[in-house]
Amino acid sequence: MLDYLVVGSGLFGATFAHLAKKAGKSVMVVEKRPHVAGNCYTENVEGIDVHKYGAHIFHTSNARVWNFVNSFVPFNRYTNSPVALSRGRLFNLPFNMNTFYQLWGVKTPAEAMAKIEEQRAASGVTEPRNLEEQALSLVGRDVYEALIKEYTEKQWGRKCTELPTSVIKRLPVRFTFDNNYFNDLFQGIPVGGYTGLVKAMLEGIEVRLDMDFLKCRSELESLAKKIVYTGPIDEFFSFRLGTLEYRSLRFETELLDCTNFQGNAVVNYIDASVPYTRIIEHKHFEFGEQPKTVITREYPMTWEPGKERFYTVNDEKNSRLYQEYVALSKQLPNVIFGGRLAEYKYYDMDDVIERAMDVFSRE
Ligand code: FAD
Ligand code: UDP
Fold it and tell me: For 304-348, what is each residue's pLDDT tens digit?
């Protein structure tokens, strides 16, 4: 009898399994995909680590999490600094003095602040009730129209007036010439990709790939005292209360016979007339100098059963349904639900690791 059967080899499952083994517990991992690492999986193509489920940049202010991941593999000094193409012009992101200079020609923080203040006052928004109002009160109408509106509506398939303010609150606004997309203390990419990181975390642990827990449930449940489930919570309960909604993505990847396609890892395409939201050039995450390059266009897509789940849609309807599943899960003391799918939450990688650490320490 195993102490734990972990369902899913993403960062939640891998962290939990590693800590359990280290504490002397017996643990096995089952994974329905043909590879480990969940959505941060990278695959080596022509010497380049390709982020197969979208660009993943590790950033955290949590020293415990940073030291934990660095104990398995070294991380490089990559700092995410995407650029955005809007109506034929390139702008720096996140919104900072470089962006304001490119947009208005303003050269000092005082000039930029005055410009934003003027537009904020003209918008008349005092308490933002949706994403559009949040953006107008944060950066004014020009930035909203040049860099936010069309990208966001393409990404989410909804009008900015129908989206929650929380979506945009992730992005920093700075009055310094600093193009770092994140405010965190630590940032980087694991040298050799995320798959190497997760493999190192799972070293010495039996992992069964191509095995869907839900398809051989009774056989697998009888193997362990406790199940750690990191798949979709509604699927665990056979969707009996309803289906939780997601936003999906489609990726188009190309190997190109050139050394440098766009000069940056991430270029966002704002205009509604372009069907994708960004192009990722994978080699730049690791300062690659390979003779070829791999690029991926990312197309937002409506999710429907059978498609890959990417972003949770945490509106009122889905949040209520999720809480009903939580109530059901409380009746199963031998199943731990953890990670972005089982907790129906937009977690960054560091959040997921921290959460798995906390859950394990409670165990
Ligand atoms: P997952 O990685 O999804 O792992 C769950 C695993 O469980 C999967 O491998 C799945 O196949 C398996 N599984 C599910 N059901 C079953 C079953 N029935 N049987 C067996 N196995 C099963 N975070 C950052 O910090 N930085 C970023 O730059 C970043 N970029 C992102 C970009 C995109 C496009 C997306 C969608 C997310 C991004 N994230 C980023 C978030 C990051 O992907 C997640 O925080 C992380 O992958 C969550 O890990 P997890 O273990 O919870 O889930
Ligand atoms: N966003 C935008 N313009 C951009 C980049 C982001 O308007 O060029 C908005 C958009 O609403 C997006 C949100 O900011 O959903 C969060 O962006 P982030 O890059 O953090 O999204 P993710 O990497 O998670 O897709």
Answer: 988 999 999 988 899 999 999 999 999 999 999 999 999 999 999
* Structural domains of the chain in order of their starting residue, each with its CATH number: 2-79+185-243+313-362 (3.40.50.720), 93-168 (no CATH)
309 is catalytic: no
> Ligand 1: which atom is nearest the Cα of residue 80?
28
User: What's the predicted TM-score (pTM) here?
Assistant: 0.97
From 178, 250, 346, 363, active-site residue: 346
Residue 345: closest CA among 307, 303, 314: 314
Largest CA distance in the chain: 68
Calpha distance 265→160 (Å, rounded): 27
Q: Which of 133, 234, 286, 298 is catalytic?
A: 298
Q: Name, in order, each residue with C-beta under 8 angstroms of 247's C-beta and a sequence gap of 6 or more.
A: 155, 156, 157, 300, 301, 302, 303, 310, 311, 313
Strands 335-337 and 224-229 come out as: parallel
- Residues making up the chain, counted from first to last: 363
Is residue 158 annotated as part of the catalytic site, yes or no? no
